[in-house]
Records
---
Amino acid sequence: MNDFPRIKRLPPYLFSVMDDLQQEVMATGAEVFDFGLGNPDQATAPHIVEAMRAAVLDTSWHRYAPSKGILPLRQAISRWYDRRYQVDIDPEKETIVTIGSKEGLAHLALAITAQGDTVLVPDPCYPVHHFGFVIADATVKHIPLLPNANDFLKSIETTLVSMNPKPKLLVLNFPTNPTTQCVDLDFFARVIELAKEHKVWVLHDLAYAELAFDDYKAPSILQVPGAKDIAVESYTLSKTYNMAGWRVGFISGNPTLVGALTRIKSYLDYGSFGAVQVAAIAALEGPQDAVVELCKSYQHRRDVMCTGLKDAGWDIEVPKATMFLWLKVPKQFQHMNSLEFAQLLLREAHVRVSPGVGFGEHGDGYIRISLVEDEPRMKRALENIKQFMQRVSSGTLRI
Ligand SMILES: Cc1ncc(COP(=O)(O)O)c(C=O)c1O
């Protein structure tokens, strides 16, 4: 594939190394616990499935859907923003339905950047935040995602002040995959102020808005007055409604950016299946009890996992949001990189996690655990981890 310049810029997904090892370990008959991908394991709520079933039987949805999404869904998105964040979104010009946020983000990158443009992307980050722009042939400049929001803000400011020419766009994602970091609205207000001062577009990914714990409420960047002058925000139904396989999300905010995405998508696709969009309306506008329950279930899993890991001797921070734990590789393994440690954990404890380096070089030294196994399996995995740590500290397992 050396003749294909765009493919050459896309290294094989690092996680495929872990896939191969997982197959190898499973072939020995071992029970493998998979905390790798952030792939929700629970079912979509029945009323959403019912809305889909009814829509599938309506043959009018069997035709092409408008590529920017059906108007009733765009109107439902507008009402959702108003209800959830008191943000005004024009369903005609300020929102577009995407085939999941991964598709929307990648195509937005292609729509608005090209060779010669530079974008600022935090490191570590969700891969499409980086590779969407790599595919578009833009230059990606990484800003290390510092754990303290004020330090990170300072670092964004210093970068913006020192760069010449200025970058075209800044990408953000809070609560963050993979690091679980959270910010408050003041952080976004300062980002918008800086972006306006330096004439930089802002793209915020709000995928984990609803998976927030202990009374933390994740803000939308669009709540900042005037944010729409310069920012768009991506949202997905994948996580909030356990609809990862359905492929539906939306990007809302600045009409110029939404318009650019609308234009490029009109050449590329016909959007999500109409019946899926009808189900998305049921999700956004129907009862939200399942969302509350889902959030509680992730919070419970977080607590079980954090307690168990601490008990096994792992020094960890408890996250306020997302479906992930972001853990420092324990001290006794710090001579290894995150991939080596993740491989060791899979081989010896039969627990699969994502190596932090898969999210950027500043992710090395960490691993990410996705809370997508149920409680009995989490407990068995924790027992394996505990025994693994004991074998290492007693010297039975030489590393
Ligand atoms: C931050 C972030 N954005 C986007 C996505 C992709 O979501 P979707 O299923 O809508 O493509 C994910 C999935 O894990 C994610 O973590």
---
Amino acid sequence: MHRLRVPSAGGDYDVVIGSGLLEDSGALVATAIASETASILLLYDEALVPFAYPALAEQGLRKVFARVVSHPVPSGEGSKSLAGAEALYHVCIRAGLDREAVIVALGGGVTGDLAGFVAATFMRGIRFIQMPTTVLAHDSSIGGKVAINLPPAGKNLVGAFHPPRLVLYDVATLATLPRSERSGGLAEAVKHGVIRDPSLFVWIEQHADELLAGETAATAELLARSCQVKVDVVGVDERESGLRAILNFGHTVGHAIEALSEGEWTHGACVAIGMMCETRIADVRGVLVDRSLPSRLRELLERLLLPVSVPSRFVGGPPSDALIELMRHDKKAVGRTLSFVLPRALGDVVQDRDVDESVVRASLPD
Ligand SMILES: NC(=O)c1ccc[n+]([C@@H]2O[C@H](COP(=O)([O-])OP(=O)(O)OC[C@H]3O[C@@H](n4cnc5c(N)ncnc54)[C@H](O)[C@@H]3O)[C@@H](O)[C@H]2O)c1
Ligand SMILES: [Zn+2]
């Protein structure tokens, strides 16, 4: 079992990573919230029902807590909505939640963001616990950001900082994750290596095959190491005044591709494309020092079965105008320049707020 401590203005919390933890969820939650009498509302991704994870979590919680209500959340980005949150407020009322109650999210980033948003706002905020079931959720479950979408204006536009009291990561649940979701989550771990931890990057190079196969011990170690990077960054800068911005490596281009491609790839796959493209921007800007980084990054992402090129249909003409427009919107850039986090070498990135859009355009094709 791996255990990390996250410093937070709202109260420090633990990330516990191991196999078979859902069975012991009651004891772990009781320790984290220092109570065995709180009402618990378990909100779970309905797609997890066939794998029995919600039943396992509920049984684990019932070993300690007398009042446990569980409720499904529809799978998919669409449930991160105001209507989705409103429906859950009524569930909270029906479940009799009071200010001492705890909302537990069992699922990926969608369930975590939505349940966390409901916990942040119901009765002006009640306690919240994350039980992530995707690799990507090692990123979303730490740091305290919770949000819903506001279509058509954009994703994550309405949200709050509401750190969890515990992140309980049962890696046994990851056995059923579709391959594309596993690869997408691994892209964020590669990003953590590039921005802050060269030894993590090298470790992923050495264990790529085990990670792709979902091997339990390797996956648990990866999550612990990658979570540690996120913990180090948000521990210094929980409210995103400076350092936290480095987490956006690959995301300026990645988010734009994700928005244009309308669900064709996972978020992580779009970030993989974005990391390659932003590395080329670093080269053109004269920021890149480590000449071997582009080929190493490409090789690792390809081994993890991630895409590495901006699709040709987005290069040149109106499609690239649309991509640039989305990047401009994303970073609220001024005039013709855009802001990027660019790599100098493994573990060393810098923010460049002055990238001319002609440089971005030229860096789209590889
Ligand atoms: N709050 C943050 O800081 C933060 C950071 C990054 C991403 N996010 C958000 O996270 C969301 C993406 O998270 P995600 O990639 O986990 O998506 P997700 O929650 O939609 O899960 C991906 C898919 O995997 C399925 N699934 C989940 N666990 C499974 C399991 N164990 N076995 C089989 N299938 C499983 C889900 O039903 C879904 O179809 C986005 O909404 C994004 O905005 C938030
Ligand atoms: Zn991301």
---
Amino acid sequence: MARTSGTLQTTLRAPVSLTGIGVHSGLPVSVTLHPADPNTGITFLRTELAHGGEVEIAADWRSVAATELCTVIGDPSKATVATIEHLMAALRGLMIDNVIVEIDGAETPVMDGSSAAFIDAIDQVGIVTQSARRRYIKVLKPIRVEAGSGWAELRPYDGTRFEVTIEFPIDLIGKQTFAADMTPAVFRKDLSRARTFGFVKDLEKLIPLGLCRGSSLENSVAIRDDRVLNPEGLRYVDEFVRHKALDAVGDIALSGAPILGLFRSYRGGHRLNFQTLQALFADETAWTLVDGAVARRESSSNAELGSSMAAPAFGPNRAA
Ligand SMILES: [Zn+2]
């Protein structure tokens, strides 16, 4: 199977479909991942709308409509897609640049609550390298956002790294940190199978509000009184923080291109992840676009010479 070289864009070898239910709506939904041309990025195509039309929604931070319990993109007056983060994490985790996500409902299927089913679907068809160069968003200076005791940052870093810490006042979770340089192999092995989790006491409040209606032990780790209710237990001893890191990979993928930088968060979530991207793109001096080959050359010259070459900016094509 073609693996990413780091310098060229990728897409899927063929279309592949999945069906499941939305975790909030509880309604059935089908998704087909289609190969797409270079520089398409990840674009959702909402079909089966009430008025019969279709609407394209770019998987981009500028499309974000809500971040309360999941990440929602689209224009609420036309069409939206909710809970995109686990699919986005799978696509970014495997470094797939160009895909059309055709979806016939308002929420991405939750599957088992992780990215595993999306990875399996992608593996069924395989990944192909395209002729166009990949461009990266290189973080040039630290950006930080805060909310209460939580915060999130993007910092300059020679590579792509995630450091995510959570802290919950129960013995089952406590304080957990996941930190790793992110590669497709690391994403597959260390993050992709980590499931979403929730507290039964919260669920009892959310279901009457029309949320979490599809939530079950099939697609979430349920916690009651410091105990996991799922008979199979946890997939990783620190599955909770790994899922939060998976969410961060998916949310930060809304940057529109892979990030060269370090993402860090403490007690973060979808809103702080999104606000980090807003803050990054609000400051034109905080980032630049670099060619994949330049990024690679630069990191090897840094390693050999300890020098830091200036990366060229793609002025006219800057995405913000
Ligand atoms: Zn999640």
